[in-house]
Here is the input.
Amino acid sequence: MPRKEMIGRVISDKMQKTITVLVEERVQHPRYKKYITRRAKFYAHDEHEEARVGDIVRIIESRPLSRLKRWRLVEVLRRAEAPELVTEEAELPLEPEVEAELGAGSKPEPESEPEPELEPEEEEKEATPESETQLEPKPEERLETEG
Here is the structure.
């Protein structure tokens, strides 16, 4: 019996020698004929830790390697593009109209609204109506009236 093969995208490589692969397949619903995307996550053994997040990989079914791991990495089909690390703020070209207004070589300053001055908050005391305090006597007063 041939072993099953799946092609999917690596969504996690944070474990040691293990990757999480997301396999998506589009199937047509039997009754409504609408195409549905079915997703499944598989844990796969990556012996040499060569797969990275975003890579497209081929995995193959294997014997159980751990409680959840039943697949092995066969090959990395396509590497994910490494995101560029931006260390400084990117200099974007200004529109010609804006550049003409500001003059060549100057940057527009961000417009900031003045913050409204906050008045100090007055301490709010719990105001209880006198009628409530008269209806319910304090525990000390109860003892005096009862005895």
